[in-house]
Amino acid sequence: MGMIINNDCAYLIDGDVFFSVDKSPNYGQLSGQKLEDHRAGERVAVDSRKRNPADFALWKAAKPGELSWDSPWGPGRPGWHIECSAMSAHYLSFQFDIHGGGIDLIFPHHENEIAQTCAACQESGVSYWMHNGHVTNNNEKMSKSLGNFFTIRQITQRYHPLALRHFLISAHYRSPLNYTVSQLDSASDAVYYIYQTLQDCEDALSPFQGGRLKEVPEQKDKTVRITSAARECISNLRSEFQTKMSDDLNTAQILTVAFQEALKFINTSLNMLKKKQQKQQQLSMIESLIAVEKEVKEVLNILGLLPSSTYLEVLEQLKDKALKRAGMVENDVLHLIEERTLARKNKDFSKSDQIRADLTVKGIALMDVGDGTIWRPCVPVEQEHNALPVEQTASTTG
User: What residue ranges are annotated as transmembrane (predicted)?
Assistant: First the structure.
């Protein structure tokens, strides 16, 4: 950083090198902070050696027993801000596209980083600064000091990684994101619905080689076209996706209106396929399903929500996680399904309803399909809305 000192942007006192913010004409451009505000309300314990309370250390003189390196200004270590400028310049050059960080780093850290980097190289610049909001635990910032944080490994013991990803993009990246068990339960339920819909669609389309249809033999001069409803569904999904992503990556609203309408279209079309239709109408519906499914998968792929394994595998994994959260194994559920079936046969509907209600509380939903009953994960109807303690997380999944 001798280059900065030569530019008269820094000064040396007792082995400490300070950056002079008064020498940085654009200081405050990122955060909107004004130097006069610092003079008017000087902070507590400001270093009296500083020319301006906002000046910051580029190099700190070594204290007894502290790790240090030799320098032209004596033994010491880099200041907090200088290391980021040095790494960026070394690995990315003085100009690069995106610089990220937590919203609490805008000032003073990133403001100081800009000032010192521009002093070292006037051509330096970052095209986009992206600051993410904090993840909170019941509206309180997660931190090691408070002991209220969770690691990804702990969370994914109980919830599928794709459910966690869905939860993380459910809020705008600049906004705070409040972590609660109910939020993760909802995210898990949402991804289960997505993958079950796509699996049902895949099953319905599998008989058609390559996923594409041939022309109807008796109408070779005409190609099969998708329905107007499918075209509108695709158009709305593309428009909403592009609009929201162009609005500072507003992922919070992407998997809502148009995306949910696309999933609803798929499920409605699958039900229609089960009914008797004219050949041309049936083929048009299948082509429509293919087109809408492709658009849904494109959105999921860009968001990182398209699984690398099959939908069936993910659905089974989601069910396994639900069983762990419920403190059960699948045989427990199957046994209760048998009890409920017997109760219904004996017209003991009170017991039948109680079994279903008890499982729903644990996040297990029973669904009567034809002559049988199947189960799937669901959002528990009663639950603690506070995040589980780390000890409980470990004990219930071990």
Answer: none
What is the domain partition of the chain in residue ranges?
2-132, 153-311, 325-397
**Do residues 11 and 18 touch, judged by C-beta distance below 8 A?**
yes
Q: Identify the H or E element spanning 205.
A: helix 181-205
Give the C-alpha separation, 176 to 108, whole Å: 20
CB 293 within 8 A of CB 198: yes
Cα 3 to the center of its chain, rounded Å: 41
Distance separating alpha carbons of residues 154 and 392, to the nearest angstrom: 10
Read off the tokens for 303: 């968001």
**Which DSSP state fits 320?**
H
Close Cβ partners of 40 (under 8 Å, ≥ 6 residues apart): none
Q: Distance between CA atoms of 161 and 168, rounded to whole angstroms?
A: 11
Gap between the terminal Cα atoms of the chain = 51
Radius of gyration of the chain (CA): 30
Please count the other Cβ atoms lying within 10 Å of the Cβ belonging to residue 95.
Answer: 13
Percent of the chain with pLDDT over 70: 88
CB 360 within 8 A of CB 333: no
Spell out the residues 6+ positions from residue 127 whose beta carbon is closer than 8 angstroms to its own.
Answer: 96, 97, 98
Q: What's the rounded Cα separation, in Å, for the pair 326 and 128?
A: 44
Measured CA to CA, the distance from residue 329 to residue 222 in angstroms comes to: 54
Separation between Cα atoms, residue 253 and residue 251, nearest integer Å? 5
Neighbour-count burial of 27, counting CB atoms closer than 10 A to its CB (0-12 exposed, 13-18 middle, 19+ buried): buried
> Which pLDDT tens digit goes with each residue over 124-156?
999 999 999 988 887 787 877 788 888 899 999
Q: Do residues 131 and 171 touch, judged by C-beta distance below 8 A?
A: no
For the whole model, what pTM was predicted?
0.82
CATH of region 153-311: 1.10.730
Class (C level, CATH) for 2-132: alpha beta
